[in-house]
């Protein structure tokens, strides 16, 4: 049905496992093999799982390290026609590093966040305390804390539960300022 409507869908083939990863997303160079008492030790399975995908913005720009899941977001956006996009993602992908990378690519991003995504620790503690009803937040209260580089806002909003999310879109007119 999608093809009949003229919708063209793109995807990146991904085979689970640290050895494979997403097609078209380049992994960082393998680290040098570790030496133990004169013997060369091959990388362990743990080392392979912790491989990081690097996304280069411009030749002189700082490289932001992303994991393979987050790198797929950037790779898919790069397949779209050149424009400025506001990307909405769920908490599987959200992290301050991904949002910083998207911002450096000229895109806005907003998405819910998990407690372990790298969000400000004070908000994580409030989320834990909220499970016992002691977060200190009133219903519909919002607390916003920018990252140290002022590129990503980290937000806590009290609904029935405390909701954590991240955004690089602050006023809504960033598209004209990028």
Give a description of the structure.
There is one protein chain. With 178 residues, the chain is an alpha+beta fold. It contains five helices and eleven strands. It has a five-stranded mixed beta sheet, with helices on one face. Strands 1-2 form a two-stranded antiparallel ribbon. A hairpin with a 5-residue loop joins strand 1 (14-15) and strand 2. The longest helix is centred in the middle third of the chain and has 12 residues, at 68-79. Mean pLDDT is 76; it is low at 32-60.
Unreliable segments (pLDDT under 50, ≥5 consecutive)? 32-60
Strand order in space, largest sheet: 7-8-11-10-9
Shape: globular
Q: Overall mean pLDDT score?
A: 76
Largest sheet: 5 strands, mixed
Tally of DSSP β-strands: 11
Question: How many domains?
Answer: 1
Overall radius of gyration? 19 Å
Alpha-carbon distance between the two ends: 36 Å
Number of helices: 5
Structural class: alpha+beta
How much of the residues is beta strand, in percent? 15-25%
In a few lines, what is going on in this structure?
It comes from Fusarium oxysporum (Fusarium vascular wilt). Pfam families: DDE_Tnp_1_7. This protein is α+β, with helices and mostly antiparallel strands.
Detail the topology: elements first, then pairings.
Blueprint: E1 14-15, E2 21-22, E3 34-36, E4 39-41, H1 45-49, E5 53-55, E6 64-66, H2 68-79, E7 86-89, H3 96-104, E8 108-112, H4 121-130, E9 142-146, E10 153-158, E11 162-167, H5 174-177
Parallel strand pairs: 7-8
Antiparallel strand pairs: 1-2, 3-4, 5-6, 8-11, 9-10, 10-11
């Amino acid at each position: 049905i999608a093809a009949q409507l003229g919708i063209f869908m793109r995807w990146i083939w991904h085979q689970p496992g640290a050895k494979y990863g997403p097609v078209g997303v380049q992994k960082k160079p393998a680290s040098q093999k570790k030496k133990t008492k004169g013997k060369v030790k091959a990388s362990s399975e743990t080392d392979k799982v912790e491989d990081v995908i690097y996304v280069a913005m411009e030749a002189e720009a700082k490289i932001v390290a992303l994991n393979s899941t987050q790198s797929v977001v950037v790779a898919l956006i790069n397949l779209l026609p050149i424009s400025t996009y506001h990307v909405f993602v769920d908490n599987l992908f959200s992290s301050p590093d991904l949002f910083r990378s998207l911002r450096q690519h000229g895109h806005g991003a907003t998405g819910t966040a998990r407690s372990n995504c790298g969000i400000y620790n004070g908000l994580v503690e409030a989320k834990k305390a909220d499970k016992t009803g002691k977060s200190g937040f009133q219903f519909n209260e919002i607390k916003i804390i920018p990252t140290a580089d002022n590129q990503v806002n980290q937000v806590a909003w009290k609904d029935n539960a405390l909701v954590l999310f991240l955004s690089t879109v602050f006023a809504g007119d960033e598209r004209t300022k990028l």
